[in-house]
Design goal:
The protein is α/β, with parallel strands linked by helices. It has a single domain, classed as Vaccinia Virus protein VP39 (Rossmann fold). Helix content is 36%, strand content 17%. It is built from ten helices and nine strands. The strands form two sheets. It has a seven-stranded mixed beta sheet, with helices on both faces. The longest helix is centred in the last third of the chain and has 22 residues. It binds S-adenosylmethionine. This is rRNA methyltransferase 2, mitochondrial. InterPro entries: RNA_methyltr_RlmE (IPR050082), RNA_MeTrfase_FtsJ_dom (IPR002877), rRNA-MeTfrase_E (IPR015507), SAM-dependent_MTases_sf (IPR029063).
């Protein structure tokens, strides 16, 4: 349950920024420092959780995925997971830990080579394939504009997901025989402050993630499980995003839920769609 994962309110102690910071930081950085010092998830990030008491998460956002997965269990038994907007790697760390818990498998996946930084290191010819890093026969592929430093078992591809070349490299890393069990998208545009423009950018990221999911997710029929392939996607509250949910997501998936995890800051309009039962 969440209580075992999420930091309890009682354990929150307030640490004031150092004298230097208090004296010299600008008003907005003071507000930021103060918010960080009061944020139980920032503290918890460095202390690990019951998924791995020793894990230091790279991002506070790891708690959002832990919470979503606690509730919907989409990572249970997943063999191939794609993590869009994966930097600095908090979500991929959670996925890798969850996959380690699954039944042990044999590393059999082969594909064209993409190295851990996403750059092809060498050109291989047909029939001369490389084994990709997998976690016990499972595969995690993370994509981001920014580099993701090595996480064991995670293939990272640096590039713009909106660019066809990046999607081509991503597709190269997927095994066509297995497809993808879970597509995660925590992608968020750099907010410009112009609400309309930010919503447009967010809608564009959601549309591309959905298009990719439609092409690669396994169907409920293929998995023999009612929930089939799952798409977990960040969005920002806006009527246009709700229209997108109705028109596209609800047509392609049997179940679509809106969730605002406890660990998502209340002042942010972000939330997540959990789409399962992919119809294909
Ligand atoms: C909130 S962060 C993701 C945090 C991540 N889930 C974690 O736990 O470490 C959003 C990420 O989306 C990435 N992003 C935004 N637009 C992108 C795009 N067009 N292609 C790839 N990544 C993108 C950003 O670079 C940023 O790293």
């Amino acid at each position: 349950m969440f209580s075992t994962i999420l930091p309890s309110k009682r354990s929150i102690a307030i640490t004031l920024p150092s004298t230097f910071q208090r004296r010299y930081a600008s008003k907005s950085s003071k507000q930021w420092l103060s918010r960080q010092s009061r944020d139980p998830f920032v503290r918890q990030r460095n202390q690990g959780t019951d998924i791995d008491p020793g894990t230091t998460f790279r991002a506070r956002s790891a708690f959002k995925l832990i919470e979503l997965n606690e509730r919907y269990k989409f990572l249970n038994g997943a063999r191939t997971v794609v993590d869009l907007g994966g930097a600095p790697g908090g979500w991929s760390q959670v996925v890798a830990k969850e996959m380690e818990k699954g039944p042990k498998g044999v590393v059999t996946e082969t594909s064209k080579p993409i190295d851990m930084d996403g750059e092809p290191k060498m050109e291989l010819h047909e029939g001369n394939e490389l084994q990709l890093p997998t976690t016990l026969g499972r595969k995690i592929i993370a994509v981001d504009l920014l580099p993701i430093s090595t996480i064991p078992g995670v293939i990272s591809i640096q590039g713009d997901f909106l660019a066809p070349e990046t999607r081509r490299r991503l597709v190269q890393a997927i095994s066509p025989a297995t497809g993808v069990d879970v597509v995660l998208s925590d992608m968020a545009p750099n907010m410009s402050g112009n609400r309309l423009r930010d919503i447009d950018l967010s809608l564009e990221l959601c549309t591309m993630a959905f298009d990719f999911a439609k092409d690669w997710l396994v169907t409920a029929q293929e998995t023999g499980k009612p929930h089939g392939g799952v798409l977990v996607m960040k969005y920002f509250e806006h009527p246009e995003l709700q229209a997108f949910r109705k028109e596209y997501l609800q047509a392609a998936f049997r179940y679509v839920s809106n969730v605002k995890p406890t660990s998502s800051r209340s002042e942010s309009s972000e939330a997540y769609w959990i789409c399962s039962g992919f119809k294909g």
